[in-house]
Amino acid sequence: TGGLDVEGIFRVPGSAKGIEAFRDHLEAGNSIERFKADEYPDQIARLNILGGVLKLYLRELPLPLVPYECYQPLVDLSKKKGDTLPVNFGKQAFEIIRARQEAAAVSEGGKGQDALRCLMFVLGFLFKFKKSSGATKMDAKNLAIVFAPNLLQAPSSTSPLVEAQQMKDCISVVEHLIMFFDRFPVPYDFDYSRVV
C-alpha cells in the first residue's frame, strides 16, 4: 500500500528496536526491500518503522533541510501572516527558503541546490499523504505537527523556552509548505512528476 491508506501513518511510532535495526540495515548499504520482513511480518508495523527512520534521518542531518538562517524569518512571517491568503503564505515561506538555498548554491558550490531538491522531495512525499488524508487522517496540519520539529529546527542559540513558544508558528509554516507544495515554482531541474 505504501502507507497511503494507513490511518495515523507517521503519527504512530514504530518499534524503537525495529527503527534501530532498520537504520543499521540501511547504513550497511542494504535496500529497503531486503529489510528483515520475516522479523517484522506485519506490513503496518514495517511502515511505522520506516516512518520512524525517516523522521530520525531528518532530525540527525548535520544541517537541517530548512537552513537555520531561515528559522526566525519564517517564524516572523507566520506571526504576521494575518489575512494573507494561505497559498500566498506558503509561497512566501518557500521563497525565504529558496532564496537562502540559492545563495548557498553560489557560495558553497551547489550544496544549497542539493538541499533544496531534497526538501522538495520530502515535501512532495508528504503532499502525497496529504492528498490521502481521508484514509490516513493525516492532513497537512497533522503531518506538520509530526515533521516540523525535524524540518524547521531552531539554531542552537535559541532558548528551549522560546523554541517551545514558537513551535505553533513552525507547524504553521510546514503545514503550508506541504499544503501548497504543488503551487511553488519549480527550482532548478526538480521533477514534480516524481513525487506528486
Question: How does this structure look, described?
Answer:
By secondary structure, the chain is an all-alpha fold. It contains 8 helices and no strands. The protein has helices at 16-27, 43-60, 68-79, 86-107, 111-131, 133-136, 140-151, 160-179. Helix 3 runs antiparallel to helix 4, helix 4 (86-107) packs antiparallel against helix 5 and helix 7 crosses helix 8. The chain is globular and about 50 Å long.
Mean pLDDT: 87
* Proportion of helical residues: 55-70%
Task: Work out the helix count.
Answer: 8
**Sheet with the most strands, sense and barrel status:** none
Rg from C-alpha positions?
A: 17 Å
User: Assembly type of the shown chains?
Assistant: single chain
What is the distance, rounded to the nearest whole angstrom, between the alpha carbons of the first and last residues? 16 Å
What share of residues are in beta strands? under 5%
Structural class: mainly alpha
* Low-pLDDT ranges: none
Number of β-strand runs: 0
Order of helices and strands: HHHHHHHH
**Which of globular, elongated, flat, extended, rod-shaped describes the shape?**
globular
Quick structural gist:
The protein has 196 residues and is mainly α. Helix content is 62%, strand content 0%.
List keywords for this structure.
single chain; 196 residues; mainly alpha; 8 helices; globular
Set out the fold topology.
Blueprint: H1 16-27, H2 43-60, H3 68-79, H4 86-107, H5 111-131, H6 133-136, H7 140-151, H8 160-179
Helix pairs in contact: 1-2, 2-7, 3-4, 3-8, 4-5, 4-8, 7-8
